[in-house]
UniProtKB/TrEMBL annotation:
Residues 140-299 form the DDE Tnp4 domain. Residues 62-110 form the Transposase Helix-turn-helix domain. The lineage of its organism: Bacteria, Bacillati, Actinomycetota, Actinomycetes, Kitasatosporales. InterPro entries: HARBI1_dom, Transposase_HTH_dom. The keyword Cytoplasm does not apply. Residues 163-193 are annotated as: Disordered. Its cofactor is a divalent metal cation. This is Transposase family protein. Signal peptide: none annotated. Keywords: Metal-binding.
Length: 325
């Protein structure tokens, strides 16, 4: 298969997870940062002195367009590097180098903002500033992905063992809006760490103090935050005692159902991420997982941000004089 046919086949949305128009936009967006990183690496390698004219020297076996293309294909399908190299007729190391260059660029793009093209959220502070300005109620939830087990007799080997999954996992926190559109994904930590601890190390408590008007819906794993910020963080109600009146149990179930319905959208956001194979079971090196998850979440947020915002119908009472028969 020639490179032309490989490019035509792999650019299909079934392989990349994005439309061809979106892929073309990515190529234009990443061209500048890729060239800047390449020049910076060459500058450090040659000690600040240029020995050849710009554009001279060894040419890439994969042009920049193909380098951008193989990265989302690998992120979507987790095809082995050797298989992608066979399609292009190049060595496996060439594909590995290309993915290693493009993956951090995709991870650094940030997350798209609904109804505000061009604006992207990159840090937790950006998310809280956006939620404060737009009056968005945040939905926060953690998710786990199975990763390779560390080698025996290494320090910190047990840190990846998840008590919930009973597997070696990495844990990531996702923040979405009320329609399940990803606003941020990060706080990547070993699977043994508690959800709340992972977010506290990212400084979420300080953000709640800086933005007292921001509200959030969380699950039972963030009970401590709900206790510390009762006016801002809503967690599921505590279960009544067994000997409590039957009405208390009915009220608890109804309240828990309402709270679950309010935060189920962040579960849908995590489900969108899990459609990409590396986030179902990550087969690469663990140190590449955070960049992989951010890259996937950023691409998913581009598509999710295009969904129109659903406005809740007005609940104001209509005067009787305006009602016509």
């Amino acid at each position: 298969m020639t490179k032309k046919w490989a490019r035509a086949a792999l650019s299909h949305p079934a392989f990349t997870g994005v439309s061809r128009a979106h892929l073309g936009g990515l190529i234009e967006e990443l061209a500048g940062p890729w060239q800047a990183r390449r020049e910076s690496a060459l500058h450090q390698r040659r000690g600040g002195k240029r020995h050849r004219a710009a554009g001279a020297g060894r040419k890439h076996e994969l042009v920049f367009t193909d380098r951008v293309l193989v990265a989302p294909v690998h992120l979507r399908t987790q095809l082995p590097h050797a298989a992608l190299a066979e399609l292009y007729g190049v060595g496996r190391s060439t594909v590995t180098e290309a993915i290693g260059e493009i993956r951090p660029l995709l991870a650094d793009r940030g997350f798209a903002v609904p109804d505000q093209p061009g604006l992207r959220l990159r840090t937790l502070a950006d998310v809280f500033a956006y939620a404060d300005a737009e009056g968005v109620t945040l939905r926060i939830d953690g998710t786990e992905t199975q990763v390779r087990r560390p080698k025996a007799h290494q320090p910190g080997r047990c840190a990846f063992v998840s008590g919930k999954k009973k597997q070696n996992t990495m844990k990531t926190t996702t923040i979405s809006d009320g329609q399940g559109r990803t606003l941020w994904s990060g706080a990547d930590r070993p699977g043994r760490m508690h959800d709340q601890t992972a977010m506290r190390t990212e400084g979420i408590a300080e953000q709640f103090r800086l933005h007292p008007d921001v509200r959030a819906e969380v699950d039972e794993g963030y009970r401590g935050l709900a206790n510390e910020f009762p006016e801002q963080v809503s967690a599921p109600p505590k279960k009544p005692k067994e000997d409590a009146p039957l009405g208390d149990h009915y009220a608890w179930r109804a309240q828990r159902r309402r709270q679950s319905s309010a935060r189920i959208c962040v579960e849908h956001a995590n489900a969108e991420h899990k459609q990409w194979r590396p986030l179902q079971r990550f087969l690469g090196r663990r140190e590449h997982y955070p960049a992989t998850h951010r890259a996937v979440a950023g691409l998913v947020s581009d598509r999710a941000a295009q969904r129109p915002t659903r406005r809740k119908p007005s609940t104001e009472l209509v005067p009787v004089s305006l009602i016509t028969c």
